Amino acid sequence: MTTYLLRRLAFLVVSLLLAAAVLFLLLRLLPGDPANSLLTIGADPGQIAAARHQIGSDRPLPQQFVTWLGQMATFDLGESFISTLPVGPEIAARLVVTVPLTLLAFLLAVVVAVPVGFLAAHRANRWYGPLLNGVSQFGIAVPVFWLGMLLITSFALYFHLLPAGGFPQDDWADPADALTSLLLPVVTIALVMSASLIRYVRSATLDVLDSDYLRTFRALGSSFTGAMWRHGLRNAAVPVISILGIELATTFLGAVVVESVFALPGLGSMLAKGIAQHDYPIVQGVLFVSTFGVLVIGFLADLAQRLIDPRLRGTTTRSAR
Amino acid sequence: MNRKTTSLFGAAAALALALTACGGGGTGGTGTDAGPNSGAPAAASSDPDATIGIGSLYEPQNLDNTAGGGQGITEAFNGNVYEGLFRLTDDGKVENLLAEDYKVAPDGLTYTFTLRDGVKFHSGEPLTSADVKYSIEKVTAKDSQSARKSSFEVIKKIATPDERTVTVTLSSKSISFVYNLSYIWIIDHKATGLTTTEAGTGPYKLGTWKRGASLTLDRFPGYWGTPATNKQVVFHYYTDASALNNALLTNAVDVVTSEQSPDALEQFKNNGDYKVNDGHSTTKLLLAFNDREAPFDKPLVRKAVTSAIDNKKLLNSIWGEYGTLIGSMVPPTDPWYEDLTKVNPYDLNLAKKELADAGYPNGFAFTLDTPNYDPHPTAATFVKSELAKVGITVKINVITADEWYTKVYKNRDFAATLQEHVNDRDVVWYGDPDFYWGYDEPQVTAWVKQAERSDTAEGQTALLKKVNEKIAADAASDWLYLYPQIVVASSKLSGYPLNGLNSQFYAYTIKKN
């Protein structure tokens, strides 16, 4: 297990470095000059040159990369090209919105998807089994922003029950206030996310329901509930957890859109604005931090699988699931 | 499945998704217009301690307008937190603010300003001539990114004979000098960290700035002049126009500084809880030709194109009943405005005749570089279908704001382009043959130069009118229309600015019932 942990950690570091290089190069492949974001119509050649010098786009690429990597090593995410303000503190301030948003949406999605997926499989022969299945199919096809707009139109504009967007100025000083403003965005992401989760849970449960070990255990006199509890759920959980790891990561993608629709000052809206303005330090910073988060989540999901499934513990590499 | 690979793909996918989601931004953006005069009726009984929520699409990049703060910081801080020696009112007049008085020497080169007595910065420090000198030099400094920097190149020397007197010597006469000074914030010369804090003399001081969300201004108790009619204003920032409209519909904000989605106006217009105000804007939508190169080097070709496009129909399809046709670069709020819409009237037969006379009886083809954000793509499609009627083939090339700046503005690598020009008094660019559109008419260049050196405002106005008439006659560009400036507010609100020249939004006279 220790060897496994060390190898896994080394892999994490290598992946992060690789991601950093890919991020850096991808951004530089974009056409255009970030200095343009600093300029307006009417700027003279002197101001254009000064803007290029200020953000360093007049220096060679390798030099820019080494500078950036050096900053990374000291946990310094640099300064925004446009605002000249440090990126790190701004990311930290916005995590206060994005982390609760992502986690709450994720939890809600799991809470909805696990029982619904289980029911859809267990009651595949009743009328509501296929219905649940059909609803989840539909849910996968629904775009996040559309669902968000639909919820705003009904709950905020029509019933006046919840705010249409925004986040309290004093963040979590009043937790009830903060939760209220996160409610609709959380539901938006959770609904879309649970739609695909339901399908994974359903197919994992179907596999287990058909399995020989479950039939044998029941033949030995166990009740269905007992059999599911001791063996079924645990086996079904293994593939679901690996999917959960990926889903949690993609929730962040949803956050980019949802934060814009709900005017939330989170990481997603910061990223969107950074890209629109070619503000590379902002984009690099946000993607670096989120890549780090994704890798750590993958690592934790791996560990969780090993705790649940003893068959995986002896191996150091990923085994077939 | 290998999760490590997935993670990397995930990051790349996030990037790609976000890229497609947000192409716009950058050079674009419409000037919101504002001034202290309100069009809304005075409130019967207003709450002197009200908090006013202001919704805007223009978040400041930082809090320093010489370090890339952008349009957003002008909107939030001009007149509210920082004051100039002069103030540009909502109807475009210049009045004394921190300058109590000024004198111009007979040679027109030396300006002597007397500062108002008893003015204090938010720190408690008194305003002195040293602060004024520092503030002007901050704008003209080498590393200054002020959009107004070039207007102050005429300054030769700034002297401070005593605490309340500033003397500025110019290298040549500049009739716009006092007007231009209204854009310079007077800053406490001892202040530091101006990208995240402020050091102004205005009726509000900065409360908190929550990046990506809001900026709070609190009434300053030590203000030298008439105190603000509300206790606090909070600018709420949105990236999405419909999120901004929703905020107004749910009373999360009381007023929207500049409505940018024409489709959203209906829901406010027929609702007694809101007032839709039609003010004056200075933002012009241009079909700018590259006047250096064939076929647009011939005025006759440009005139033909101008006459072939039905601007009225275009404006109507985008803004409905709002907006104005101008026929030139000068909006009605500039002193040298004239109605020139008749110079190149919409007339297909005239257009065809002009094309034939110019040597293009069968038309020609050109590429139209079109910024990818509204309203440019819509306008481009319209222009294409209009010009097809006279045999001109348009190839629409959609580009980002950033590409536009490099390709069109810096490299002048274009035949024709669409672009919004936001500033007032910017007809003078036609006097600069090096400007991106390359209009080179020595007479116009001379008039623009002379106008700036005029002794009187009347002299300046007369010359700039000539400029305006000449560029219209030459169809230097096709000025498609002037944007509307629409402030939508709760009907409980009064005293808000309607025009807001050059993105200003004076909040200190806003009242709430």
From TrEMBL, chain A:
The keyword Transmembrane helix applies. InterPro entries: BPD_transp_1_N, MetI-like, MetI-like_sf. It comes from Sphaerisporangium corydalis. Residues 95-301 form the ABC transmembrane type-1 domain. This is ABC transporter permease. Keywords: Cell membrane, Membrane, Transmembrane, Transmembrane helix, Transport. Coiled coil: none annotated. SUPFAM superfamilies: MetI-like. The lineage of its organism: Bacteria, Bacillati, Actinomycetota, Actinomycetes, Streptosporangiales. It is a multi-pass membrane protein. It is found in: Cell membrane. Belongs to the binding-protein-dependent transport system permease family. It comes from the Bacteria. The chain crosses the membrane at residues 91-119, 140-162, 182-201, 236-262, 282-303.
TrEMBL record, chain B:
It is a lipid-anchor. Keywords: Signal. Its main location: membrane. Residues 1-23 form the signal peptide. Pfam families: SBP_bac_5. The keyword Transport does not apply. The keyword Isomerase does not apply. Residues 93-424 form the Solute-binding protein family domain. PROSITE patterns: PROKAR_LIPOPROTEIN, SBP_BACTERIAL_5. It is found in: Cell membrane. Belongs to the bacterial solute-binding protein 5 family. PANTHER family: D,D-DIPEPTIDE-BINDING PERIPLASMIC PROTEIN DDPA-RELATED, PERIPLASMIC BINDING COMPONENT OF ABC TRANSPORTER. This is ABC transporter substrate-binding protein. It comes from Sphaerisporangium corydalis.
